Amino acid sequence: MQKKLTITIDEDVYNGLYKALGPRRISQFIEDLVRPHVIKKDLSAAYAEKAKDEAREKESLEWTDAIFGDFVGNIEE
User: Fold this and answer.
1) Which of 5, 24, 60, 66 has the greatest number of C-beta atoms within 10 Å?
2) What pLDDT shows up at residue 14?
3) What is the pTM of this model?
4) Rounded Cα distance, 57 and 55, in Å
5) How many CA atoms lie less than 13 Å away from 21 in the CB half-sphere?
């Protein structure tokens, strides 16, 4: 369920939000920014959800393999 919230912000900030996002996207943008600071996720569930994204996991493994390879190479030198 959504709740309506009225906030007061500087006019320049509002104009920047309006210009960058448009009038119907400001609320979602603010919610996305604030959510991680006020709602604690179960990390195990969050990691499990992210692991379902096969493309993301493949990219992550390639990235960590590259870093680990650099690390091992530096130790051997």
Assistant:
1) 60
2) 96
3) 0.51
4) 5
5) 14
Alpha-carbon span 30 to 8, nearest angstrom: 13
Q: What is the DSSP string of 1-65?
A: ----------HHHHHHHHHHH-TTTHHHHHHHHHHHHH----HHHHHHHHHT-HHHHHHHHHHHH
Distance CA(65)–CA(72), nearest Å, equals: 10
Place of tokens 């709740």: 3
Residue type at position 77: E
Average pLDDT in the chain: 85
Give the closest residue to 26 by CA, choosing from 41, 39, 34, 36.
Answer: 34
CB atoms within 10 A of CB 27: 13
In residues, how long is the chain?
77
